[in-house]
Q: What sequence folds into this?
């Protein structure tokens, strides 16, 4: 690694009290340190550093506040029974970050440097990785455009930052299938848009539909394609799978669906088990018909937050589709147990998905 | 106005040197003061204040950095020959801000308070309104979500800010028609999306297409509808008009097109002149055919930045459509002269569009 890419470390003089592991919730508490690296046109990415967690001081004209040029990632670190710390497929996240960067006209980051930074940051704050059942350390790498300029154009300055938050169990009260509202009015993304990129605007545009779902007591929305409003895209912040007559089906990546890492892992694991998995267009009509004819056996979402989230019901206009009597199916259960087992080092890892944060990653200082 | 809505004023102890009016450019220089108001769930919008222009200090977990929940506006203040300062239809901007707020799940602002804040801010920094031909003070109201939380949900905290930037003449070298690239691959917005809202994500998603246009030496892209890629939406950051066989035609507002204030003013003015103006669906095919048959007389964009921007050429796949021999048309010219005349107080204002910033708006302190 080039000299200028040596990660400088400035440790916090005081450590914050750790929150109680019972009431962590999600994304409310942050660790003692953060990683930052700056981009300057002509100079590239420079000054990678781990510093005490602190506010950003930004000019009000910075482009991030106006034109939303930003990308982010989300992954987790887990503590094993024997006190090792594991990351789940972090390289995938940095590869996806760079694909998002490309779509959003943000300069690519060095994936090896990003991974090294992440490992060092987790090592510095390793006491923040919780150990209670189902808890983990949520990691949020993100890039924001910081040039102080009001013109609509790719910025000449950016910050790449990683912050981390200890998070509670998604299933504190046991796995319970969720109810999903099929969205017919609002659209999340369309071919030619930014759906495939993990960029703020996709999430901002989803809020209005989620408000409607909340009012109707549905937990998330299922997005249909923006052109015909017929084909299934994904659910809130999860990809979606169906088991129809013994076969697993999931919408093929089409440019407007996020290429989920849990989705990819699920497909690989199912194939490893010898199950038939098909990625293709799936219409809501097909799901409705499969349910009517008794062939819709399971449905579940996949994503970093919940890993596997069984779906017990869809509401599609006035049609209610109950899946597997509203109970978790055997495939979803087996996937959940296996993938979370691998993430926590409790199950064999046939694909070498986990990456250990080694003691020597801790910088001497 | 309620007591809590009194705008507090803290004046800067030092004033920055003003930039030379010849080389202002756009959005690079900022005035001495800014307006800020905070929103806290349960308390509403509070603490409106004018303070010295200064950086924002924000936690790196603030939602604006991750989920793009934000809106903005853009308008201008002009200095008249006799040294009065005029705003162009500012109420329209705050009404549109609230429509954008509604789509993005951001709490509405009090439009009267916002206008009052704007007038006071311009009065405080009135020396920053440039006087050279074609120059103006660009005003940028914006709202960002500031809650420090990584969950995808409408934030509980926001900041409403107004900053201002003296800007140069858009037509420093005289009005020259622009060349526009018709975009066939990327999509800016789709029905059910956020195209009608002035929110960062729409602009972030447009950067990639603009990059392609820049490479091909076209000045902006023309967006087609996201569903059929047949119908004309708008151009970069302008609405678009055509004069076909004597009649003015512009795409009807359909939910994915920004409801431009210059567009509205153009339509009102043309009707005032007794011209026929139709808002309807306009396909690219129709424009091509009108050009082939010699009926396409003019085309121009409308927007706050350029006011009226004549279009001299469209490139649609391999078809080049030259409009009016690449010269400015008479309707565009008359609109430009009339609207900019009204904005600068040099022409009669039949619709009461301009709002004067009165001396008494200057707070005593
Ligand atoms: C829109 C969207 N879809 C799907 C996913 C699932 O992706 P992953 O499995 O990589 O977490 C996420 C996020 O995590 C998401 O935000
Ligand atoms: C996407 C877009 N369309 C059209 C316009 C024109 O709107 P207005 O005339 O209100 O400036 C703008 C901005 O100014 C814009 O950003």
A:
């Amino acid at each position: 690694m080039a000299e200028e890419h040596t990660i400088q470390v400035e440790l916090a003089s005081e450590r914050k009290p750790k929150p109680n592991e019972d009431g962590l919730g999600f994304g409310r508490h942050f660790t003692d340190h953060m990683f930052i690296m700056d981009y300057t046109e002509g100079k590239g990415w420079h000054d990678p550093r781990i510093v005490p967690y602190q506010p950003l001081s930004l000019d009000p004209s910075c482009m991030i506040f106006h034109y939303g040029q930003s990308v982010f990632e989300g992954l987790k670190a887990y503590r094993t029974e024997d006190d090792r710390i594991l990351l789940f497929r972090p390289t995938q996240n940095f590869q996806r970050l760079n694909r998002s960067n490309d779509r959003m006209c943000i300069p690519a980051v060095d994936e090896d440097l990003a991974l090294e930074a992440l490992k060092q940051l987790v090592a510095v704050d390793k006491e923040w990785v919780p150990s209670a059942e189902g808890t983990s350390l949520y990691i949020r790498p993100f890039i924001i455009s910081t040039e102080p300029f009001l013109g609509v154009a790719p910025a000449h300055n950016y910050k790449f930052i990683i912050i981390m938050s200890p998070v509670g169990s998604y299933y504190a009260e046991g796995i319970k299938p969720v109810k999903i509202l099929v969205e017919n009015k609002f659209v999340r993304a369309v071919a030619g848009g930014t759906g495939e990129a993990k960029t703020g605007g996709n999430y901002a545009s989803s809020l209005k539909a989620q408000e409607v779902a909340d009012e109707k007591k549905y937990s998330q929305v299922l997005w249909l394609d923006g052109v015909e409003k017929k084909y299934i895209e994904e659910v809130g912040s999860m990809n979606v799978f169906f088991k129809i007559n013994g076969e697993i089906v999931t919408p093929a990546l089409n440019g407007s669906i996020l290429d989920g890492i849990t989705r990819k892992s699920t497909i690989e694991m199912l194939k490893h088990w010898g199950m038939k998995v098909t990625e293709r267009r799936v219409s809501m009509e097909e799901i409705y018909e499969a349910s009517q004819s008794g062939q819709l056996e399971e449905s579940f979402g996949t994503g970093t937050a919940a890993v596997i989230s069984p779906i017990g019901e869809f509401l599609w206009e006035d049609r209610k589709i109950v899946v597997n009597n509203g109970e978790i199916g055997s495939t979803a259960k087996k996937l959940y147990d296996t993938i979370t087992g691998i993430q926590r080092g409790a199950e064999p890892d046939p694909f070498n998905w986990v990456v250990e944060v080694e003691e020597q990653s801790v910088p001497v200082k």
Notes: Chain A touches chain B through 66 residues (CB under 8 Å). The first strand of chain A starts at residue 8 and ends at 9.
